[in-house]
Amino acid sequence: MAGFGNGTRRHPRSRGRTWSRTGPDSATLGIIGLVCAVAGFFALGIVLGPAAIVCGWLAMGRSWAGPRPVPALVAVVLGAIDTLLALAWLAGAGMTGNGLL
Fold this sequence. Notes:
Radius of gyration: 21 Å
Distance between the termini: 80 Å
């Protein structure tokens, strides 16, 4: 019975960290989002645009407050533009003809 409680006294859990740190960091997510946003302009914009938005948002720490890393912000903005262009293209393709002006 003397062994109970000794582990928490020697190595207390830090208060600032409540999740595992095994995933990618914010810089990596920002760069991944930026690559997805740029690639989405050329192919699969309807998939890569939202992926860029999600990666950029996660890289910004899911908040608009405070300093934001530039690649993450660019990924969110380009991903939104990419998604809107892909939706406009899909709406145009659904009209009569082939969707070209």
